[in-house]
Specification:
Length: 307
């Protein structure tokens, strides 16, 4: 088990208020169907034993689902590398498992924020909105531990739990603007929040049906649904299409074609049907060996909140 590789996709930028990595442990604040919760996961015994604590009303919920969060529903053995680069990347990362949170909205909203903007812009908006409209995450109560969850007053952890669906739907337009979120993305988030219960049902669906459920919301397309289901459902075949960079990276890594489009990427990854997301993830983890040299300037950073 490698906590960083497995849970890393849940972190949204270097200062994500819902996620913190400390030496030997990962802290995560989340909003469960039972209420807010903070989870601390650590490894011992050379990465073969998991130690976890949780606090808040949703503590039992997150602990009951901890195995799936750490990839118990994933099957790394189903992946058979057929390219030298993928074989090397796969061999170097035996602790990689695909996480499954069982929660749609907490992954969907930050993915919507990432539509058509730089990562820095999206991360800035996420931080501001979660800190402004979320709530401090529960933490350990003073004194000896009381068990899996504690009903005594909770100490703050410095983390924040994201807002509930109703709060997302009630954020005024000027605060979206101050967070650097344009009207198109904010409207998509509001529409998703209003049907949050229906979207959460996607965690129990097969990939095709789950994607269709998410994409029924205007403003959510294949890119957004794939990026969400990779995290909420642990979908090993949820390949991200419509991405600005991924087809060129996959094309360059597997065929030396830095100008590959989605069609070429799908053809190259056809031998990995059922495991295409894992294949793309391993290509990205291969680092400079897989990423073509830059030929154009980076996307300009914008901040509409300054206007």
């Amino acid at each position: 088990m490698d906590l960083g590789l497995t849970l890393g996709p849940l972190k949204r930028g270097p200062a994500d208020p819902t996620f913190r990595a400390t030496p030997g442990a990962v802290w995560r604040a989340t909003r469960t169907p039972a209420g807010p919760a903070t989870l601390r996961v650590a490894l011992q015994g050379g990465g073969r034993e998991v130690i976890a604590d949780a606090w808040g009303p949703g503590a039992d919920w997150v602990l009951d689902r901890l195995p799936e969060l750490l990839g118990s529903a994933d099957d790394p053995a189903a992946f058979v590398p057929r390219h030298r680069l993928l074989h090397a990347s796969h061999r170097r990362r035996p602790g990689l498992r695909l996480t499954r949170t069982g929660l749609v909205l907490e992954s969907l909203i930050p993915v919507i924020l990432e539509q058509k903007v730089t990562s820095d812009e999206a991360y800035r908006g996420w931080r501001r909105l979660v800190r402004q409209y979320g709530e401090p995450a529960p933490g350990p109560a003073p004194g000896p531990a009381a068990g899996r969850s504690q009903s005594r007053p909770q100490a703050q952890t410095g983390l924040y739990v994201m807002p509930d669906p109703r709060t997302w739907a009630m954020i005024p337009s000027w605060d979206w603007h101050k967070a650097g979120v344009d009207a198109k993305r904010s409207a998509t988030i509001v529409r998703a929040a209003r049907v949050a219960a229906r979207l959460e049902e996607a965690t129990g669906m097969e990939l095709t049906a789950a994607a269709a459920r998410l994409e029924a919301v205007p403003g959510i397309g294949p890119w957004t649904s794939a990026e969400t289901l990779q995290r909420s459902n642990g979908a090993a075949d949820a390949l991200t299409t419509g991405d600005l960079h991924l087809p060129g990276i996959v094309g360059y890594a597997l065929a030396g074609d830095r100008d590959a489009d989605d069609a070429a990427m799908l053809e190259l990854l056809a031998p990995y049907a059922g495991q295409r997301h894992r294949a793309a993830r391993l290509i990205l983890l291969a680092g400079t060996a897989a990423i073509p040299p830059r030929r154009a300037p980076r996307m300009p950073r914008n901040d509409i909140g300054r206007l």
